[in-house]
Design brief:
- This protein is α+β, with helices and mostly antiparallel strands.
- The protein is built from 18 helices and nine strands.
- The protein has a four-stranded mixed β-sheet. The chain has a three-stranded antiparallel β-sheet with strand order 3-9-8.
- The N and C termini lie far apart (about 110 Å).
- About 40% of the residues are buried.
- Bound molecules: protoporphyrin IX containing FE.
- The site of protoporphyrin IX containing FE has 26 residues, from helix 13 and helix 18.
- Keywords: Heme, Iron, Membrane, Metal-binding, Monooxygenase, Oxidoreductase, Transmembrane, Transmembrane helix.
- Belongs to the cytochrome P450 family.
């Protein structure tokens, strides 16, 4: 047999290595460049057309039913990953939390948040850490929250008094709940209600509506023309809100320059920080944080009270049980509701959890953005990809919740499932580093009003028709129509 000459050996070795390298490249590229599945995209618009006619969290749930809990969607030219399962939510907010600790640059949020200098939209880093720490220490720890008890007591009692005067006639609960909750935040964080509170609430609500949709400019971020066109309305609204926020700062500054010797509130602390800090906070930065507290503290908690009351009206058995509990606890002890005995209201706490399961106030949480390319479940997530977590759909997934669409507070009565960021099937406050820091503040602003509304009054719908539960369009989950009810006094307000 003739031996191969050295040329043939070199040639065959080269050919072998060449094929091997090609295969390795092919194999590794199919493995690492695979995006999660998703519907086919159309040229230019991507999947944007699939959002027409329904609320974003509903559309995304329907699409996830078809394409799975880890889905890739193109909105315009922007890649989005949609997460619709507790396991994958845990991957994003726990396993890869640091990589997803940034927020995307969204035009409306950027304008409203003074160039992303608030807590919600600022990039993960020292500036964000400092601001979040100040707000937590000054306003949001459970000790600080408790210290505001008299403010809550006054504001909620005022509402109860007003309801008492409408005995037997139709009372618009929505129109009165929201100002009350904003009042609590304003007094706790800034010392008093704003002079322009009503206008301010209206403008903030308009802002939130605008932020809930997909602005065309955000679908094509590199188009300066689209950005210029989209800015007009949101900038006008922002200028109006800005005037109120500047007013709050100016008043505090004037007070600091006088001989005022009262306690410092959050704005005083931020102004002090403005002078001392290495970050040299501007007035705009402070206004951005004030707004965080207003939106975080006002809108979300009132919406939860409103949905909780709505569901109880649809489920008289639940309403009856919650009322019996509140009346049992407070008739025995004091004859009026105060915060000292709220911890006995275990059924009411389950009602609140069930409300947040079905109506998480921020249904798609606040979007995250990947810093670096990473792999999850064998799929590649490129750097700077937007991630949207559908907490609303996860809370209604029959795989994790029996009778998922029914309002059944009992499911929480002897259950350890909580919303503090460790049970990923129940994440109304998010999880991980960017989780909501306002849980303690929120809970007291929900529990006290609900307990008082149930203690003092029975409630009836104005007509025999079933209560309309349509959701409004916006970044927060609100009722489309105001909740109007007839109160019947059962325990008159004594003091
Ligand atoms: C029912 C009431 C509330 C709900 C459902 C809620 C929900 C949320 C959610 C889902 C997030 C985003 C979390 C994430 O990205 O993982 C968030 C962030 C935030 N919330 Fe809340 N929130 C509520 C009340 C409050 C209150 C009372 C405050 C303050 C007074 C507040 C202040 C904030 C702030 C500052 C952030 C941004 C955190 C960050 O990016 O580091 N929230 N909230």
């Amino acid at each position: 047999m003739e031996l191969p000459n050295s040329f043939s050996i070199y040639f065959l070795t080269f050919l072998f290595l060449f094929i091997l390298t090609k295969l390795a490249i092919k194999f590794s590229s199919t493995k690492t460049t695979k995006l999660p599945p998703g519907p086919k995209t159309l040229p230019l618009i991507g999947n944007t057309h699939q959002f027409i006619g329904s609320l974003p969290h509903h559309c995304l749930k329907n699409l996830a039913n078809k394409y799975g809990p880890f889905m890739h969607l193109k909105l315009g030219v922007v890649s989005n990953i949609i997460v619709t399962s507790p396991e994958l939510a845990k991957e994003i907010m726990k396993t890869h939390d640091l990589n997803f600790a940034n927020r995307p640059n969204i035009l409306s949020s950027n304008i409203i948040s003074y160039n992303a200098s608030n807590i919600v939209f600022s990039p993960h880093g020292d500036y964000w850490r400092q601001l979040r720490k100040i707000c937590t220490v000054e306003l949001l720890t459970s000790k600080r929250v408790q210290s505001f008890w008299s403010i809550r007591e006054e504001e909620v009692s005022e509402l109860v008094k007003k309801i008492g005067t409408c005995e037997g006639s139709i009372f618009n609960l929505t129109q009165n709940l929201f100002p009350m909750t904003y009042g609590i935040v304003a007094r706790a964080a800034f010392g008093k209600r704003s002079r322009y509170q009503q206008v301010f609430i209206e403008k903030i609500e308009e802002q939130l509506k605008l932020m809930g949709g997909f602005s065309v400019a955000d679908l094509y971020p590199s188009s300066r023309v689209l950005r210029m066109m989209a800015k007009g309305k949101i900038e006008k609204l922002h200028r109006e809100v800005d005037r109120v926020l500047q007013d709050i700062i100016d008043e505090h500054r004037k007070r600091r320059n006088s001989d005022y010797e009262g306690e410092e509130d959050l704005v005083d602390v931020l102004l002090r920080f403005q002078q001392d800090s290495e970050y040299s906070l501007t007035d705009d930065n402070i206004k951005a944080v004030i707004q965080d507290m207003f939106i975080g503290g006002g809108e979300t908690s009132s919406a939860t009270v409103e949905w909780g009351m709505s569901e109880m009206l649809r489920n008289p058995r639940v309403m009856g049980e919650a009322q019996a509990e509140v009346r049992r606890v407070f008739d025995n002890n004091k004859g009026h509701v105060d915060e000292t005995e709220l911890h006995h209201l275990t059924y009411l706490k389950s009602v609140i959890k069930e409300t947040l399961r079905l109506y998480p106030s921020v249904p798609l949480l606040v979007p995250r953005e990947s810093r670096e390319r990473c792999q999850i479940n064998g799929y590649e997530i490129p750097a700077k990809t937007r991630v949207i977590i559908n907490a609303w759909a996860i809370g209604r997934d029959p795989k994790y919740w029996a009778e998922a669409e029914s309002f059944k507070p009992e499911r929480f009565v002897d259950s350890s499932i909580d919303f503090r960021g460790t049970d990923f099937e129940f994440i109304p406050f998010g999880a991980g580093r960017r989780m909501c820091p306002g849980i303690n503040f929120a809970l007291t602003s929900i529990e006290l009003p609900l307990a008082k509304l149930l203690y003092h009054f029975d409630w009836k719908l104005p007509s025999d028709q079933e209560l309309d539960m349509t959701e409004a369009y916006g970044i927060t989950l609100r009722r489309e129509n105001d909740l109007c009810l007839i109160p019947i006094t059962r325990r008159p307000l004594l003091k």
